[in-house]
Amino acid sequence: MRIVAISNQKGGVGKTTTALNLAACLTQKGVRVLLVDLDPQANATSGLGLAQEDGGSLYSALVEGTDPRQAIRSTRLPNLSIIRSHQELAGCEIELAQAGNHMARLRDVLAPLRDSGHFDYAILDTPPSLGVLMTGALAAADELLVPIQCEYFGLEGLSKIVNVVQQIRECGANPNLLLEGIVMTMYDSRANLANQVVNDVRNYFAETCYQTLIPRTVRLGEAPSFGKSIIEYEPSGRGAQAYRALAEEFLARRSGAPIQAPGPLPTE
Ligand code: ADP
Ligand code: MG
Predict the structure, then answer these.
(1) Which atom of ligand 1 is nearest to the CA of 185?
(2) Where is the AAA domain (predicted)?
């Protein structure tokens, strides 16, 4: 099981949308995915139409050392399991910080799942702040996927997260953390600035940058309020197509298949 954190300390950049829909699209390729909702706001949980966990079982695994396998739930989608969020998770920030070993805690909690052979990927949706849960996710992850919004402040956020990765590696919490990919979200081809940002990120980050651009679409914004992934809500729309392409690219990058050079930017 590879652990992939979807992180960016900036909020509203498409972390949850990407975690949930990438996970859903991967399962359609026969990949077994465990989605872990680490955000106390529980957007990934509710975005799949699920209530927050009652007993706070991820919280108890983290803080009380209960078996994390008890926290795994199935979803409507075959091959997709979830560890739901619970608002108690917000308390982890203080409790884990006091316990002193917070960097390693999440990795330890995920270890039995990694060894269980039940999942190919764990996808961690992280909160938008550089607290214990996000740094714990970066310490636990094999790979980091950073969604950024195609706008000026997106670039600023990107340089911050690159620094965070450097710090996580250098402090010894996770020397092998790989910045696997940057995914550009909420792309609007009519906006000149969006095209400028895409070009800049591609020039600077080269292969780290996914070729697939996630468009800004009304449906992607609506789907969570219906408790559905985009492949359930509008399976043939632009949003679903984009996340399916992202899932394919995600798998192709791991199979050693050559990555195509970026084509021209799409227009409406
Ligand atoms: P984060 O998890 O980084 O805070 P979200 O994934 O929750 O970001 O996205 C922020 C908001 O933007 C949400 O309301 C979401 O539904 C919406 N959104 C995300 N991606 C898109 C998109 N590609 N097109 C339109 N709306 C989007
Ligand atoms: Mg989120």
Answers:
(1) 23
(2) 1-177
Nearest Cα residue to atom 16 of ligand 1: 221
Q: Does any ligand 1 atom lie closer than 6 A to the CB of residue 5?
A: no
13 Cα to the center of ligand 2, angstroms? 8
**What's the predicted TM-score (pTM) here?**
0.94
Residue 255 falls within a domain, yes or no?
no
Closest ligand to the CA of 127: 2
- Tens of pLDDT, residue by residue over 179-202, are 999 999 999 989 888 999 999 999
Does 39 map to a domain?
yes
Angle between helices 132-140 and 102-116 (to 10 degrees): 50
252 within some domain: no
| Alpha carbons within 13 A on the beta-carbon side of 193 | 8
CA of 240 to the centre of ligand 1 (A): 14
Cβ of 185 closer than 6 Å to ligand 1, yes or no, is yes
Is the CB of 186 inside a 6 Å radius of any atom of ligand 1? yes
* Model pLDDT for residues 81-118, shown as the tens digit of each residue: 999 998 888 888 888 878 777 788 999 999 989 888 99
Domain CATH for 115? 3.40.50.300
12 lines ligand 1 (CB under 6 A): yes
**Structural domains of the chain, count:** 1
For ligand 1, whether the C-beta of 13 sits within 6 Å is yes
Q: What angle (nearest 5°) sits at the alpha carbon of residue 118, between those of residues 245 and 56?
A: 95
- What CA–CA distance (Å, rounded) separates 238 from 253? 22
- Lowest-confidence segment of 56-60, 140-144, 259-263 by average pLDDT: 259-263
Report yes or no on 260 lying in a domain. Answer: no
What is the domain range of residue 189?
2-247
